[in-house]
Amino acid sequence: MTAEHLDVLIVGAGLSGIGAACHLARECPDRTYAVLEARDAIGGTWDLFRYPGVRSDSDMFTLGYSFRPWPGDKTLADGASILDYVRATAREHGVEDKVRYAHKAVAADWDGSRWTVRVAGRPDLTCDFLFTCTGYYSYDQPYAPVFPGAGDFAGRIVHPQQWPADLDHAGKRVVVIGSGATAVTVVPAMAETAAHVTMLQRTPSWVVSLPSRDRLADALRRRLPAGAAASVVRWKNVLLMTASYQLSRRRPALMKRLIRSGIRKQLPALAMDPHFSPPYDPWDQRLCFVPDGDLFTAIRSGRAAVVTDRIDRFTRTGIRLASGTELPADIVVSATGLTLLALGGMRLTVGGRPVDLADTVAYKGMMLSGVPNFALAIGYTNASWTLKCDLVSTYVCRLLNHMARTGARVVTPQRPPAGPLEPIIDLTAGYVLRGVDHLPKQGPATPWRLHQNYPRDLLALRHGPLTDGVVFQ
Which of 166, 231, 393, 429 has a CB 3.0–4.6 Å from the CB of 23, allowing a cystine? Predict the structure, then answer.
């Protein structure tokens, strides 16, 4: 039986996958395509995560799509609103009908002219170009360290990635283990009805308060057409993020002082050390943003607290710390992070030879050395994920149209020039360090270098030349 063939296969129907499909429908309307989604719903992260308070950790004016501006009024939007936005975008652009649910791509082999994609429990599919938009972490296996004595605990231990629908935390004592974006979101949300919530952290994070509404956006929406207002606010936020990142890289001591000053205004009675004084520079790990300082409000009210210590072991009634203190708990939330997983776990082979991702180098942060007719969407670590994925989708469409015009059938980034290689994700967060050795590398210079700079990437990916002597044979 001959496998069904499509021009393009997109893997993943989350924020980036739906964006890629919309770009393809808009910019390459003559291409046949499908979107393979392992789960039974559109939305990716925003359909998977159901923990209290789940929301974006980037502003929505840049996390939203460039071709469909964010229509809401919240800067850091709740997960349900983001999910509605992704699904509405899919419907409006005719993408919804292209999604094939319960289609988990497990392997793909390039035979010299096309990809054969193996789908668990389904017939094989073939395509000319394979575009993976699967994110960077495992949906099935969150990072869940084994805690000594956890079996002795009489309460309930839950992970935010696998939040149980029947969990009622009202009136309960809660300990949230972690200090990252998930922890600073869960703590104030649960503190609204819990008896008390403690954020137990081994290492603090840099936490910055952002207004829940963008005043400029509110003002411009009253005076300008929606598209024009969205463009101005988007660029304002892009430039602010870029300036923040550059200041952190060039003047880390000054950035630390600015962040600490903001926290002191929120928590004048709380000692900064050690609870809000990380031992690393801002943007060595992602900053944690909290809308209207809700985390600080919960701490000031006494409904929440921060403890910086190490876990000795769980007891029947809580957690005993290395200092000897015991934290009483009815519920423990293990906000301990993610498990990195590239390509959704899909295995690649080229001509029957397995591709070891760790041996590849990313071309423009989106194609892999030695892998033909293939792209992957990896967003920014220092800005909104969608900003980079949007540019990658635009580039893929430009590339496909150029191939059609020139009659080219195969594009393969060759091995980059000699030079030092570095991880493709340049953060020191625990979840990155645990799995970064299995990911592609980046090279020493353009086009093999990731610059984490949206204006620069905009020029290169949306307007730069396609024939740079690297990908076309």
Answer: 393
The CATH classification number of 150-212+266-334 equals 3.50.50.60
Q: pLDDT tens digits for 69-103?
A: 999 888 999 999 999 999 999 999 999 999 999 99
User: In whole angstroms, what is the distance from residue 48 CA to residue 72 CA?
Assistant: 21
Q: Tell me the H-state helices in 7-116.
A: 15-27, 45-48, 60-63, 79-92
Report if pTM > 0.85: yes
Return the domain boundaries, the chain. 4-140+339-463, 150-212+266-334
State the helix-helix crossing angle for 15-27 and 79-92, rounded to 10 degrees. Answer: 20
Which of 436, 362, 345 shows the shortest CA–CA distance to 140?
345
CB 26 within 8 A of CB 396: no
Task: Report the CATH number of the 4-140+339-463 domain.
Answer: 3.50.50.60
Q: Is the peptide bond before 372 cis (omega within 30 degrees of 0)?
A: no
DSSP element (H, E) containing 34: strand 33-36
Rounded CA-CA distance 347/105 in Å is 9
